[in-house]
Amino acid sequence: MAEITLNINGQDHTVQVAEDVPLLWVIREHLQMTGTKFGCGISQCGACTVHVDGQPMRSCQLRVSRVVGRKITTIEGIAEDHPVKQAWIDIQVPQCGYCQSGQIMSAVALVDQNQDPSEEEIIEAMEGNLCRCGTYTRIKAAIRQADQEVRNS
Length: 153
What we know:
By secondary structure, this protein is α+β, with helices and mostly antiparallel strands.
């Protein structure tokens, strides 16, 4: 066990964990931030997506020792008034909702880093996020709405 300090959502958190523990379990079990979901456990579904230094990453396979000293953002750290969150509400994207925190994290990274993404860029950015309910058309529409909001502000 090691004492590890992580910067999550702008706050430092110190935990006692093995260095090879996945970041997801530190976030969910040790810090009780349960917005980030466990989906497949093999970095294939995207439910566990968080931002590390602004880049979307799968936390289920990311060893906690690899993110020490880096800025981590979970779904709880995305502002309630972020255009992506509002677009998700306006377009009523979720059905079951389980994958949505990961979907939102990937969409926020895209909208924040790429003004006016093409259809192909949206598909590429969202490619690693699976939705068993098949809300992909609404997800793309919400990303378009959020992007328009960001460009107009």
